[in-house]
Design goal:
The protein is mostly helical. The protein has three helices and no strands. The radius of gyration is 18 Å and the shape is elongated.
């Protein structure tokens, strides 16, 4: 019984890790910015600041993934 439980726990952790990783990279591969057409009229400076804050675009991917 304990061995079965350990196998299930390890499998669950692996599945969660895979789903999080795939989701992270799919979101980063998507085109566009948080300042899309649905946001409304924003000055370019505000849009750039928002993009940097929301997506942390200035940080490397490994730092974004860990956060």
């Amino acid at each position: 019984m304990a061995a079965w439980l350990v196998r299930r726990l390890v499998a669950s952790i692996a599945i969660v890790f895979a789903v999080v990783t795939i989701t992270f990279f799919v979101v980063h591969l998507a085109h566009g910015t948080p300042c899309g057409p649905g946001v409304g009229p924003l000055p370019p400076e505000v849009c750039q600041q928002l993009c940097r804050r929301v997506s942390a675009a200035i940080k490397p991917l490994r730092v974004q993934y860990v956060k």
